[in-house]
Amino acid sequence: LGISQQELDKFLVHFSKPYNEIQTKLKSELEINEKYPYAYHSLKAYPLIKIEHQGKQALMCPLLTLLFRRITEGVYYEIWKETHFDIHFGEAFQTYIGEMLGKTNSKALLLKEQTYGSSHNKVKTIDWIFGDNTALLFLECKTKRLTVEAKSSLTDLSELKKQLGILADAIVQTYKEIAKYKSGVYPHIKYDSSLEIYPVIVTLYEWF
Length: 208
Prior knowledge:
Elements: H1 5-15, E1 16-18, H2 19-29, E2 48-53, E3 56-60, H3 64-70, H4 76-79, H5 85-104, E4 109-112, E5 115-116, E6 123-124, E7 128-131, E8 135-142, H6 148-152, H7 158-183, E9 196-203
Parallel strand pairs: 1-2, 8-9
Antiparallel strand pairs: 2-3, 4-7, 5-6, 7-8
């Protein structure tokens, strides 16, 4: 298939574990309680299991869906600890949203984030302003995702409330930007009282 043994080995370092090792990990991680269907376990990180089959090395994939997730959205967990990752990741997502808005609505007004203020007090506008002659959408883009603990804990809701608080901060931030626009400080668009204004929080992941 055009894949060398060296390339395969490099792939398996990230996505597989020997049978005995994954068995030990799972026994220590899984709890038979209310968290069982939602809690993290090592098969999510290592969906491929190294086994011996008919005297040869082989790979087993108990849950194929986990493999698909691991090599797509799961790559996030390989790189999120890199220096300044959150800044670059957020900027990339914000740019992506602007590109999609522009390509799907070429006739609409689309204004990207601007920096304004004095050299000692630089501030930024909302990420995107999108609209027509009837209304404006004020879009704030967020890559924040719910933590595993927030999704899996059904009895202690403190982590979930903490995460929802972060999302609430984004909502407040958006309303503050709308207030700045109405006060006339935005450098790239003048306030028009005839337009309806709608705040929109665009998240990379479904928060339900």
